[in-house]
Amino acid sequence: MIIHPIEPVFNNESEVLILGSFPSVKSREAMFFYGHPQNRFWKVIASLYDEEIPTNIEEKKALLLKNHLAVWDVIAQCDIEGSSDSSIKNVVANDLSVILDNAQIKAIYVNGKTAEKYYKKYIEKTIGRKAICLPSTSPANAMWSFDRLLEEWRVILDN
């Protein structure tokens, strides 16, 4: 069983919550979200807000908070082989109330189908809020070009 090692990023001005599934091996090593160099999350977010691509944890946190974004993951702990979403078993979901009770979240998005699956299974009924599924920024989702990803992710600017 692996316990999620990264604290959520949010403050009382956060309006959009973006949830991944569970941190990859690279993210767990980096102790921050979307730590794999091929993951396009930071490039997408920076592009949406016309900002420089952040290169360290402080810059990443600043980019999120400046743009009223909160980031965490659906899963608090699970059994997983490496970074393989298909190997996830024995899921315990994160308690999103730590964010929802302390921020002005207007919309919840999930980064990819795995996050959507576990959100629907463990969280949606509990909190009574639907999440909008965005295409995964993971390098495993290589069939999506960066431009196509960016176009789909623009929906978060509507909040």
Task: Write a structural description.
The chain is α/β, with parallel strands linked by helices. The chain has a single domain (2-158), classed as Uracil-DNA Glycosylase, subunit E. Helices cover 31% and strands 19% of the residues. The protein has 7 helices and 7 strands. The protein starts with a strand and ends in a 6-residue tail after the last helix. 34% of the residues are buried. The model has no long low-confidence stretch (mean pLDDT 97).
Write the SSE topology.
Layout: E1 2-3, E2 16-20, H1 25-30, H2 41-48, H3 57-66, E3 69-73, E4 75-79, E5 89-93, H4 97-100, E6 107-111, H5 113-122, H6 124-127, E7 132-134, H7 146-153
Parallel strand pairs: 2-3, 2-6, 6-7
Antiparallel strand pairs: 1-4, 4-5
Helix pairs in contact: 2-7
Q: What tags apply to this protein structure?
A:
four-stranded parallel beta sheet; 19% strand; three-stranded antiparallel beta sheet; 7 helices; alpha/beta; single chain; 159 residues
Largest sheet: 4 strands, parallel
Shape: globular
CATH topology: Uracil-DNA Glycosylase, subunit E
CATH architecture title: 3-Layer(aba) Sandwich
- Helix and strand pattern: EEHHHEEEHEHHEH
Main β-sheet, spatial strand arrangement: 3-2-6-7
Mean pLDDT across all residues, rounded?
Answer: 97
